[in-house]
Write a structure and sequence with these properties.
- It contains 19 helices and seven strands.
- The protein has a five-stranded parallel beta sheet, with helices on both faces.
- The protein has four domains: 127 residues, P-loop containing nucleotide triphosphate hydrolases (Rossmann fold); 74 residues, Helicase, Ruva Protein, domain 3 (Orthogonal Bundle); 88 residues, Up-down Bundle (Zinc Finger, Delta Prime, domain 3), CATH 1.20.272.10; 74 residues, post-AAA+ oligomerization domain-like (Orthogonal Bundle).
- By secondary structure, it is α/β, with parallel strands linked by helices.
- Belongs to the AAA ATPase family. RarA/MGS1/WRNIP1 subfamily.
Amino acid sequence: MQQPLAYRMRPRNLDEVVGQQHLVGEGKIIRRMVDAKMLSSMILYGPPGTGKTSIASAIAGSTRYAFRTLNAATDTKKDLQIVAEEARMSGTVILLLDEVHRLDKTKQDFLLPHLESGKIIMIGATTENPYITINPAIRSRTQIFEVLPLQETDILQAVSHALTDEERGLGTFPVVLDDDAKLHLSRATNGDLRSALNGLELATKSTPEVNGQIHLTLSVIEECVQRKALTHDKNGDAHYDVISALQKSIRGSDVDAALHYLGRLVEAGDLAIICRRLLVIGYEDIGLANPNAASRTVNAVLAAERLGLPEARIPLAQVVVDLCLSPKSNSAYSALDEAIADIRQGKAGDVPSHLRDSHYKGAAELNRGVGYQYPHNFEEAWVNQQYLPDKLKHTHYYQPKATGKYEQALGMRYKQLNEWKKTKK
């Protein structure tokens, strides 16, 4: 039986890795390790299909080391012993250990000395946060790298390569892939290249050849990846229009419209995009008017990511209604943007001497920290002293809004402090 297209198209070296340029690009950490022949064990974590196994096989291909694959959940200590014996006999072995977060203590204790000696270079792969799920003994002997969801352009590049590669890909098939079908293939799989390539292969091999062509339309790709498309125009503007409409509907407190656009994104399978957009909305549009809504958004997003679609729609619907009906305020980030604008115009100024770091020998001679008044030593834990640089000392960025009880309270405190500045010496 022939191996799946996603397996056949795995990169043979770092130059063939799709995406993850923050790790394998020129001058980046994993490429530096390979170029310097100074590999160390590592853990790659991120969503399925984003290239963890691909990076491991590319490292092995770039270094010419033996490459073995095991699963921490299903393979036994004896399987690890076989890899260790191979490493002892023939030199370094790169071991891709999938589901590394499920490594039990017996296997871990066996593996640790081999990692320390460098005979086995372990590349652990996991979809779980390693800082939470992986034993500290393993973490301390590895470098941890996050593998990010692939971008649309990354998947388009990989699809094009698969369609033209005659040795490993589908280059011997007379495939004609419509533009809207290709675009949907790059989006509907949520950055999962494995799903995109396997869906493409299924479509190619299950579509009859007509007049010397295998014509893959949008409906064919929808069926093969089991994700319905949003109504796209040729450039995909409608996709981004729906995302924009979701945020603007929430900002405008229209629950029904927001749920409609959420539904369209759910039907398209765009979980990652939905979660990211809702996090932005929680802080950008709700902000200080209702900070608890932003916290609830974070929790809903975590639940949605853990559940996956279709169940993810349940916490997503709840938080969209919550955000829609919440009071709104953009005061905090608007104030920051004004401060950044001043900085970019050269209005930064020097930090006042009494605020500068004084925790080093000779600081007093430089007048660093001299005259600083510790607010906790004063009534109301407040003392009238200058904090902004001289050229900005009368500047006000924050303008509180009265759209929520929390920010109303902040506004009263802000007004009180400004009054104190005028009256208290």
